[in-house]
Specification:
279 residues, alpha/beta, Rossmann fold, 9 helices, 24% strand, Universal stress protein
């Protein structure tokens, strides 16, 4: 892995996301790029807008506001601090301030990056109350490289839990994590499969366990019975020092994971990073 992106809202990065990004960058010896952005009430240039069906020119621009220059200086200072903190830890770092459209800028950066790291609370504004926020969901569904949601507290990763449902997406996610982070092969590799009924085909189980044993020093294949979302939450709540791997957001187990009645609580207090990628 060569390039990791850390998405940063406003002036300063969330400490947990920054700590985790530095941990992975140091582990993989990858360059870390901080993407900073600040949602403005007004645009940089006069723009045509509509109100009650009438078109008008919004002549007030962000530069006209007294607090604009203050915010600009704050962000510049935090961008310098970000680079200095990374360099003190021996991590090569760079920064970029992105402007509207924010999502398009992030996705554009993702095309030539290996990994995006985001905080669960990242959003278009600092006043967002819903977690996961709209921006996080959009990044998960549109990113052109894998995404990791940073944990609340950074701890060493001792286990990789692959959420496996037999789909191409879940298999692809397993491979992507292993290829991107071969440094974690000394951790325990656990494939978790949840099904309401029936048994796992012996041939399928054999292929999975064979694949695991070739990539991880210690491995395990766990099968649980019952409702997928309920069993998944119960299982994950007990985990510590783990990294959770899931297939494409918006389909299957991952989309249901985020729609679960307790998902917001789990993500707000996320005790482990969640790795999500697309097939």
């Amino acid at each position: 892995m060569e390039k990791i992106i850390l998405v940063i809202l406003g002036a300063a990065p969330a400490p947990n996301a920054l700590n985790f990004a530095c941990y992975l960058s140091d582990l993989t010896r990858s360059r870390l790029t901080g993407l900073f952005f600040q949602k403005d009430l007004y645009t940089e240039q006069p723009a045509l807008k509509q109100l009650y069906g009438m078109t008008y020119v919004e002549s007030i621009v962000s530069g006209d506001l007294p607090e604009h220059n203050v915010k600009k200086r704050q962000i510049e200072e935090h961008m310098r601090n970000f680079k200095e903190n990374c360099e003190e830890k021996g991590i090569q770092a760079s920064t970029r301030y992105i402007q509207e459209p924010i999502l398009e800028e992030i996705i554009s950066e993702s095309r030539f990056s290996d990994l995006i790291i985001v905080d669960a609370a990242v959003s278009y504004t600092t006043e967002a109350k819903d977690i996961p926020a709209t921006l996080l969901k959009e990044i998960l569904s549109s990113a052109q490289c894998p995404v990791i949601i940073a944990p609340v507290i950074q701890e060493p990763i001792e286990e990789i839990v692959f959420c496996y449902d037999g789909s191409p997406s879940s298999i692809f996610a397993m491979k992507q994590l292993t290829y991107l982070l071969p440094e974690l092969t000394e951790s325990r590799g656990t494939v978790l499969q949840i099904q309401k009924e029936g048994e796992v085909a012996p041939s399928e189980k054999k292929m999975i366990t064979t694949w695991l044993s070739k990539h991880f020093t210690y491995s395990d294949f766990t099968v649980l019975k019952g409702n997928t979302e309920d069993e998944l939450f119960t299982y994950l709540l007990k985990k510590k020092h783990a990294l959770i791997v899931m297939g494409a957001y918006g389909r299957g187990i991952v989309s249901r994971f985020f729609k679960h009645s307790h998902a917001d609580l789990l993500i707000k207090t996320l005790a482990y990073p969640v790795f999500i990628t697309h097939y």
